[in-house]
Fold:
Amino acid sequence: MIQGEKPMTRAELVLEVEWLLQGGVHPELICLELSKSPGAIDRLCRNESRHDLAGPFNALDRSLRNQSASEERKARMTEYNRARRQRAKDRKIAA
Structure:
């Protein structure tokens, strides 16, 4: 958006999303271009009754959430294993 220019309306955003998707632009790049999250664009399209446009953003949103959850699980398991090794080491020293 150019300084001093009014922000796009919801309908204009949906038209922009449609135009970019038809032009072959990847949904992730559309999110960056519009400064919106995939979930926000998904909700915007659904609220404007454009479920046909929402699909790629819903898939991207789920993918990113699953990736984030996987990284959190991995971090918890790393911490759990570190604590388990430390307890085993402490028992060995105490024995």
